[in-house]
Write a structure and sequence with these properties.
By secondary structure, this protein is mostly helical. The protein is about 70% helix and about 0% strand. Helix 6 packs antiparallel against helix 7, helix 8 runs antiparallel to helix 9 and helix 11 packs antiparallel against helix 12.
């Protein structure tokens, strides 16, 4: 709901103004007062009657003499459809908007709204991955086009969430292959995490599982390689400690009493006082 509130405010800020000063660029196909129709759309939009609003904005787009105002109408229609969860129709409208008005000043917002629609359709990562992969591609494209914009910060955060979901799926499948002793398939999945999702929270476990598999297979050199990578980058991690214990059977954890240092200090003070 917060995202939608922000989107509404942004859209109103950049789109609501509808001035008669815009110079006509082409004659309308049907003689309809586009400004009146557009206002009807805005009134319906403000009353949350988004479906009716989208129809009015579509009508206004067809009848505005100004390309700028026609583009605004098209974008308002797309957002109205998004607001009532008509995702497919909104996406279709936005794709058409991008093709028809590539030079419009609000083109970035259209690309951003496409990303938001894909994001809101993402479901459980253990099921269909296709929406996640499509969303990742869409966000990556946006960040290449508009890297230093107000929308980029939000989409970078969403991309991190997506990559963690994808990594979680890879690890889930890898652990299944480990349990069923399908080592080659497990290794492939784990290396995919290292190659594509190395900034996620699952990288440490992926490294440990590779150590574990190669140790089990007797390939000590590979096991040591991944253990070294784990130690170099995450030496305070429990996964590194587990890998170290696996490769060093004589390893013992020396658990220090947190009050031991304090006790020694007071004993020393007592000796001085005596």
């Amino acid at each position: 709901m917060v995202i939608r509130h922000i989107l509404v405010l942004t859209l109103i800020f950049i789109l609501v103004s509808c001035s008669n000063k815009d110079a006509p660029l082409y004659e309308p196909l049907v003689k309809v007062d586009a400004y009146s129709v557009y206002k009807e759309g805005l009134d319906a939009f403000e009353k949350n009657d988004f479906f009716f609003a989208s129809k009015k904005f579509d009508q206004a787009e067809l009848n505005f003499n100004s390309v700028d105002l026609a583009a605004k109408s098209a974008l308002m229609s797309s957002f109205s459809l998004y607001a009532v969860n008509f995702y497919d129709e909104a996406l279709s409208n936005l794709e058409r908007f991008i093709l028809k008005y590539p030079a419009d000043k609000n083109i970035m917002y259209a690309y951003y709204l496409i990303c938001i629609i894909y994001f809101e359709q993402v479901s459980d990562e253990k099921k269909d991955l296709e929406p996640l992969l499509q969303l990742k591609d869409r966000i990556s494209d946006f960040l290449k086009k508009y890297p230093d914009t107000e929308y980029a910060f939000d989409l970078k955060f969403k991309k991190d969430l997506i990559e963690n979901q994808l990594a979680a799926k890879e690890l889930y499948v890898a652990n299944y292959y480990i349990k069923t002793q399908k080592w080659a398939s497990a290794i492939k999945r784990l290396k995919n995490i290292l190659d594509q999702y190395d900034k996620t929270v699952f990288i440490e476990e992926a490294l440990f599982r590779l150590v574990e598999i190669y140790y089990h297979l007797g390939i000590k050199e590979e096991a040591n390689k991944y253990a070294s990578a784990l130690g170099y980058n995450y030496n305070s991690s429990e996964w590194f400690e587990m890998s170290y214990k696996l490769l060093n059977k004589d390893y013992q954890i020396i658990k220090k009493n947190p009050k031991e240092k304090e006790k020694k200090f007071f004993n020393k003070i007592l000796e001085i006082i005596k």
